Fold:
Amino acid sequence: MSNFLKKTLTVLLVTVLMAVSVCGCGASSAGGGGGKGKILLALHDDTDTFLNVLVAAMQERAQKDGLNIDIVYAANSTDTQKQQLEDAAKAGYSAIICRLCDASTTLQMEAAAGDVPIVFINNEPSESFLKPDKYVYVGSFEQDAGRFQAEYIWNGLGKPSKLDVVLLMGDQGHSAVEPRTDAVKYFFWDNNVDLNVVFCDYATWSDTLAYEKLDMFKLTEQHFDCIIANNDPMAIGAINWLKDNGYDTHQYLVAGIDATESGRQAVADGDMYMTVLQDTAGQGNAAIDAALALGGGGSLKDVEGATENLKYVWVPFVPVTKDNVGSLK
Amino acid sequence: MGNSTARKQTKIKNKLLIFLLPAVVVTILVLVLISGYLSRKSLSEMATAQLSASITNQADNIESWLKENLQNFSTVKLLIEKTQPTAGELQEIIDANYGFNKYCRDGVYLATGGGTIYQAAESSKKISHPAEQPWFKQGMTRVNMAYGTAYTDANGASIISASGLVNDGSGQLKVIAADLSLDQISIIVNSGVKMEDAAAFLVDISDNTILAHQDPARVSTKLTTSDTDPMMAKVAEQLSARKWDNLTAAGYVIAFKEITETDWVLVSYVPESAIMSDVVKLTYTLAIAGVIAIVLIVLIINFLVSRVIAPLGGITKNIADMTEGDFTIAVEHNTNDEIGLMSTKVSEFVESMRKMLSSINNESKKLKEQSDNSDRVSKDMFEASRAQSDAMQNLNNTVDQLAAAVGEIANNASTLAMVVSDTRDNSNQANISMKETVEISKKGRADMEQVSAAMQGIKEGNDELVKSINDVGKASEEITKIVEVIGEIADETNLLSLNASIEAARAGEAGKGFAVVASEIAKLAQNSAASADNIATLIGEVHTAIKTVVSQAEISAESIDKNTMLINTAVETFDQIYQNIEKSNELIDLMIQDVEKVDDVATNVAAISEEQAASADEILVTSHRMVEQANNITQSSQEVADNSHELASTSDTLTAYVQQFKI
Structure:
């Protein structure tokens, strides 16, 4: 009987092995290795404050670890950027860290870079253009920033059941704009707040444009409780407008994002109710970690904050208020 | 071997089929199931991907359509802002743009905070109290034109408006707007579906209004989680949780897509059954292909197994015949696989067994002949020693008679000596008696010589016996060597069968039957070895018996030698007697002739007779001893006969063993 059992087991084993061999042919092997090759930083423009801070963080890291990093700027031209990526592929860079001029050109840029893996930063491409362990995005989960703004403002105003909100958005088409703005709306919807968006327009990340837009808003003579901006400069523009029009910034709360130097100052001064810190150094480090991992043929798995689908590395946002602004440099 | 006959015999082919067929059937079923499962999965994935592609395409269509319209409206707005027209110029601009956008039936229109309305002359739109209107309120919330939420206009049509503040630097509140009908959007939405059986609808999640739907009754109604259609209720649930992942619910695969720069979500759905119909078709095809494959493979396996293991049946029969002792079999070996190798080796084994057995047979025949020979020789010897014994007895009797006669001679001589002078007549009688004595003495001498000759014969026979026995010994040593050869062959065969077992094990399932054969060969080899051991033991016994015979034959030879010596002594004595008697005869003759002188001679005769009597006594004793020795020889030759009988029966046993095998 045990003999029969053995034979039955053998038959089963053979069957399973056959089945496995039939199905397992498609499995690919992932290469290892962590050689430190050259990394190219392909950036859209050298005038973006946040990006310059991010670049500084990455350079610091490169210097510390002895990494070989080159930087090119595309002066906001997709053509230039495409050419730069083509050159990078030829020059043998192991990975490219890229801030897209335009997120809708993702596919062209990927094609231009050939086989070189790309770590996108700051301007998020659509998920369908990302590929696990090949084309990835390192950034902050933008919706968190908007949620923090809405939550802090609502609490700051004493959790009212009805709210008139002014929203100042960044650049039309920028990947961070919709998630940040939507997250504000979603928070109020989810908390059954009767949200009344009295003004919502693009101010292209700029304090002066924000000021101009608010001047237009002034014409409508509508009531508002708070101004929520997609970044700190627009929030500062809003603060200036509030002050110029005789509003008390402690009553009309303003929220920004990025915790830039002037933003932090405004928080410290009590003019800006809160801002959200995009962990610039964290993003820079994560981008370099991802570039090193992918450039060495490895996987995002080993990079902290990587999502399960291996397309994103999320660096957490930190809410900044008067209470903790002092602890930030 | 005894066990296997008790066990139920099954064919290797059947065994192989019993294990192969379920394995094949299970394998194919598993393959069909796996490929069915994988195809099902990939078809589902493909369908879902197609749905995703379709919805993405639709969303892109809608976005670009919206954007196109918005840009068209914004161009008019920008023109107004840049040119800062007067009221008349403004009216002209609006009139000029009327009809430019076919989707916007009422054209671009503008209202100031003060209630002044500018709209195209040809427009049928009724506007009153503009500041109260949704488009105006929506427009106040932005400078860049954007779409607001859906509402019903004064004409009762469901529309959405793109509106925004006019930034012409006048410092006056002006809102510019243009309308798009939801019917139009519905057409755009539904014409963009790129998948068979799929449908789509558009929802504004800021107020859950259905903006576009195949069912016109649904358009501009609110979508709630308490919808009667479970699919719609599920969609409402997903929308309120803002989960945009594809899902399967209420028999539909549903995909979601946010329309950028709006709060709108496009929902596309396809019945699961539409996706699954292909899967079902595929599963049926796979199942039929599987059944056909099973039938074909079963037939092929049956054919192949029959072909491959057919020679095994022949080998099995051969081995069975061999176990019965039949080595006359011919083993066919015409394949080049392990079975062919086995056939070859069995064939070689049969051949070597056949040679070995026939040589054993020959040797045992020789042994039998030799032992028969020695039996015959020992019988002859026995007869000869019997004859010798009889002759001895006769001699003894003769010697007795001689002694008596000598005694008589002595008495007579004494009497003669006393009465010699008067016994001339008696002398004649004595002469006659003397002659008789001479005759008897001659006969005794002849008898004695016969004994001597017989003795020589016995000796030669005995020597021959010893030689024969030694021959037997040599033959048995040869047998021992042969038996050793058998043992070695058996060991080799055993080793061979062990190798065969290992090969069989390595061959796995296919070698199972072969393993059985190999183990049977091993048993056979072990039996051969045991038989060889038995033969060796028996031959050892034969050897011991021969040694005993030889030693006894040697004893016998010694005895015979002694006898011969004694007999020779007796012959010599007889010769002396004969000579003495002849001398006596001569003396008697002399006595008869010189009877006168007999007196002195008679005294001598008496003395001589006395001496003769003493000699005769001595002869008697000697001949008694000879009788004893002859008896001894008889007994010894009897023993030799017994031993050679034993030897003969041993060789008979050996022959019987060997004849168990047919060669």
In short: The two ends of chain A are 78 Å apart (CA to CA). Residues 47 and 189 of chain A are 37 Å apart (CA to CA). The longest strand of chain A covers residues 194-202. The first helix of chain A runs from residue 2 to 24.
